[in-house]
Specification:
The two termini are 53 Å apart. The chain has helices spanning 2-19, 28-34, 38-73, 79-133, 156-163, and strands at residues 23-26, 137-140. The relative contact order is 0.17. 71% of the residues lie in helices and 5% in strands. A two-stranded parallel ribbon has the order 1-2.
Length: 175
């Protein structure tokens, strides 16, 4: 008797708790890709990449010049001068390797710097939709982390409407 009473109380509590929960999904990456400001972000990233490439090419040219000079004069250089040239070449070689490794991190940092204001805009619109519609939880629908979500709980288009972003027409192939 006590067990059945506890079971009924637990089931009622479960229904009550689930009745107050409204879960939705959003694909912020999709919204970001549809924002007109992304053109400026992409242009900024291309300009930054071009700058990094110029810096890299400058280091490579300097390296090539040092190596050619060393190879041309290796026979006539004194031991101390040869060792100094070899040290310079090795140091520049290491700098080039480090630059290659840092370039990807630098590009990601620049991308984050340029897209953070856009994510803030998405966040403001998302919070407005959440408040208007009474959602208690929003899950990110991008990537592979969400197995399934019913379309009626996806707030992506509502957020895009709130932001004034035109929603592209979907073709039958995309669906």
């Amino acid at each position: 008797m006590i067990r059945s009473s506890l079971l009924i109380a637990f089931l009622c509590f479960s229904v009550f708790v689930s009745a107050q929960t409204k879960v939705g999904t959003i694909d912020t990456d999709y919204i970001l890709s549809q924002m007109p400001e992304m053109e400026e972000v992409n242009e900024g990233l291309q300009a930054y990449d071009k700058q990094l490439q110029q810096d890299f090419q400058g280091s490579v040219k300097k390296y090539d010049t040092l190596v050619k000079s060393y190879q041309a004069n290796v026979e006539t250089l004194a031991d101390e001068a040869r060792q100094q040239s070899e040290s310079e070449i090795i140091e520049l070689e290491n700098q080039i390797k480090q630059f290659r490794q840092r370039a990807q991190v630098m590009m990601q940092m620049r991308r984050n710097e340029l897209t953070n204001p856009l994510y803030e805009k998405i966040n403001v619109a998302m919070r407005a939709v959440i408040q208007e519609e009474g959602f208690t939880q929003i899950l990110h629908a991008g990537g592979n982390s969400l197995a399934f979500s019913a379309e009626e709980y996806d707030i992506t288009e509502k957020v895009m409407n709130k932001m004034g972003i035109e929603i592209p027409e979907t073709t039958e192939e995309e669906e």
